[in-house]
Design brief:
Largest sheet: 7 strands, mixed
Low-confidence stretches: 95-102
Number of helices: 6
Structural class: alpha+beta
Radius of gyration: 20 Å
Oligomer: single chain
Helix content: 10-25%
Order of helices and strands: EHEEEEHEEEEHEEHEEHHE
Mean pLDDT: 79
Shape: elongated
Length: 216
């Protein structure tokens, strides 16, 4: 392992190589079509949390989901009670206004309330990304938060102390699409057990180049 001064930002090449899958986020414009039922064709704008209402089935949470996932969820809710065999299509509308925000995702794992993938809309930081996942659990280790990032085919990990960030000891780091955040105990965290034990994160984060390459 090699220690660095800062976690590098993804390059333009990394952005091109990153997954092109987009996810529903805040204020995303969607077109929903239930085949053969004109009354269930809707143009939808999600709210600030990525949620929206749909006739007959109520509120759906679209944040972090793809159009295909949302279509399947709408089909499941309609099937049987309202439509015998629903066929639903969900698409992103053409970008006609600043409200059309498609987003790639960050993965938040470990000791957070709702582990999973979350959309990144605009500039996001580590603290905000943890908030997207519902915040920390009672067992979370605020001084032991990992950010995994791949830059130019090299795997990096930043080790941060959320308490130190809250106190203003160092800046809340920016988070980018495809980053993986791990809070507290996990198998990934154990890979860096010795480094974490030896580190003091109160005044600066710890950045590690793991020297692992992945050609996929």
């Amino acid at each position: 392992m090699t220690l660095l001064d800062a976690l590098p930002q993804p390059t333009s090449r990394d952005a091109q190589q990153a997954t092109r899958q987009t996810f529903v986020g805040s204020f995303t414009e969607l077109s929903v079509d239930v085949y053969g039922i004109p009354d269930l064709q809707r143009e939808i704008l999600t709210d600030g949390e990525g949620k929206f209402s749909f006739p007959l089935i109520g509120t759906l949470d679209g944040a972090g989901k793809s159009p295909t996932q949302l279509a399947g969820e709408i089909e499941d809710r309609l099937r049987g009670r309202f439509v015998r065999d629903p066929q639903v299509t969900v698409n992103f509308k053409a970008a006609t206004s600043p409200l059309h925000l498609l987003s790639q995702a960050v993965t938040v794992d470990g000791q957070v309330q709702r582990p999973g993938q979350y959309p990144l809309v605009g500039r996001q930081t580590l603290m905000r990304a943890v908030s997207l996942a519902g915040g920390l659990t009672e067992l979370a280790k605020r001084d032991d938060v990992l950010v995994f990032r791949k830059v130019e085919n090299q795997q990096y990990v930043g080790i941060y102390n959320l308490q130190a960030i809250r106190r203003g000891n160092y800046a809340d780091p920016e988070i980018f699409p495809n980053d993986v955040i791990v809070v507290g105990d996990s198998s990934q965290r154990r890979l860096f057990e010795d480094v974490i034990k030896a580190a003091t994160l109160l005044s600066t984060p710890l950045i590690v180049l793991t020297n692992l390459t992945n050609n996929n």
